[in-house]
């Protein structure tokens, strides 16, 4: 059992009032709040250590470099990568996927090759592949979802052919909360000798990740969604693949030797880290991962599961409520995969999602509205957008009660 009231004290922002109401922050899938320890460790680095990494002989530069490499080791441990060579720092999930699209695309894809994605992908796992299409005539094969918001695994299996080169798929939908069976997906893909990229942006804050146990080939996540700072993220890649891929960007640190005639590349992972990295954010990210690990992801997951199930029960009692994803237990029978992540998307009658979100905000409830960067999924669902609540471990049942009461008040206005 987590002591939520004690943990909430780590997040001063949760004490804010919005329009005279206690803030209820239910937009955690967009970004999580930061504990004081993350803010403190970054402030301390700027106040006492700051110097550019890797290129200095002086004390501060070496200290900053050590902190950054310790952070890389913390990330390695967090996802259980074999080696820190497999941990590339990026600006976030988006940059990580763009890196793979560009470099893996250049190394391994030819005209006519195919990549499998799914209908529930975030734009970050669609558009990079489309950008690649301007350079190579690759095809995107899209795995459909079922009406209750799960991957159609039968269809998935049927998408493979001799031209399939990569599966790029999200572990958890940022709209539906659907938790995809990535273990099974990886087994199926590997049976066809096809590598798999996992978009773990919505998984990393909620469930333990073990890239060796999963045997995924690439995995991307963002620091800011896992209680860390903005502007920092991770690309995990198997060394054997990263070694064969060309650099993504050129500049300082990613080189071995440079001349106007010929330039060689640095070793992994630096080959993919051109320019001055956000070495303060790497320290903040490591602190956030240590913080989450100390609380314990299984305890976090259990608490968030309780919150989600409680919210679903309350929401389902509201007339004209439409919840997307999260099939009800009755509909699912004994299927334990029914449990989704801590994200709930919904609409009420014909009330516009933006109106609901705006009025909830006036009552202090922060939710997200819109297409959630998943327009193809909105098309599939036949809607323009949803209201989305998303929970973190610092949220409480009391906050859900406040939210439901506010929602009922707003609905009455229509
Ligand atoms: N994938 C998913 C599933 C996401 O939810 C998000 C963020 N909403 C992203 C990718 C992109 O993450 P970022 O903006 O941090 O790069």
Brief synopsis:
This protein is 39% helix and 16% strand. By secondary structure, it is α/β, with parallel strands linked by helices. The chain has two domains: 148 residues, Aspartate Aminotransferase, domain 1 (Alpha-Beta Complex), CATH 3.90.1150.10; 253 residues, Type I PLP-dependent aspartate aminotransferase-like (Major domain) (Aspartate Aminotransferase, domain 2), CATH 3.40.640.
Percent in helix: 25-40%
* Main sheet specs: 7 strands, mixed
Total number of domains: 2
Shape call: globular
In angstroms, what separates the terminal alpha carbons? Answer: 40 Å
Mean pLDDT, all residues: 96
The ligands bound in this entry are: 4'-deoxy-4'-aminopyridoxal-5'-phosphate
Major beta sheet, strand line-up? 4-10-9-8-7-5-6
> Assembly state here?
single chain
Radius of gyration: 22 Å
What is the number of beta strands? Answer: 17
Descriptive overview:
- There is one protein chain.
- With 414 residues, the protein is an alpha/beta fold.
- It folds into 2 domains: 4-34 and 297-413, Aspartate Aminotransferase, domain 1, CATH 3.90.1150; 40-292, Type I PLP-dependent aspartate aminotransferase-like (Major domain) (Aspartate Aminotransferase, domain 2, 3-Layer(aba) Sandwich), CATH 3.40.640.10.
- The protein contains 15 helices and 17 strands.
- The chain has helices spanning 4-8, 36-48, 59-79, 93-108, 127-133, 153-158, 182-191, 211-214, 239-244, 279-295, 297-316, 329-332, 353-362, 375-381, 397-413; strands at residues 17-18, 21-22, 24-25, 87-90, 114-118, 139-143, 164-170, 196-199, 218-222, 233-237, 255-258, 263-265, 321-324, 343-348, 365-366, 368-370, 386-390.
- It has a 7-stranded mixed β-sheet with strand order 4-10-9-8-7-5-6, sandwiched between helices. The chain has a 4-stranded antiparallel β-sheet with strand order 13-14-17-16, with helices on one face. Strands 1-2 form a two-stranded antiparallel ribbon.
- Helix 2 (36-48) packs antiparallel against helix 10, helix 4 packs parallel to helix 5 (127-133) and helix 11 (297-316) runs parallel beside helix 15 (397-413).
- The longest helix is centred in the N-terminal third of the chain and has 21 residues, at 59-79.
- The chain is globular.
- Bound molecules: 4'-deoxy-4'-aminopyridoxal-5'-phosphate.
- Residues 92-94, 122, 124, 170, 174, 199, 201-202, 222, 373 line the site of 4'-deoxy-4'-aminopyridoxal-5'-phosphate (PMP).
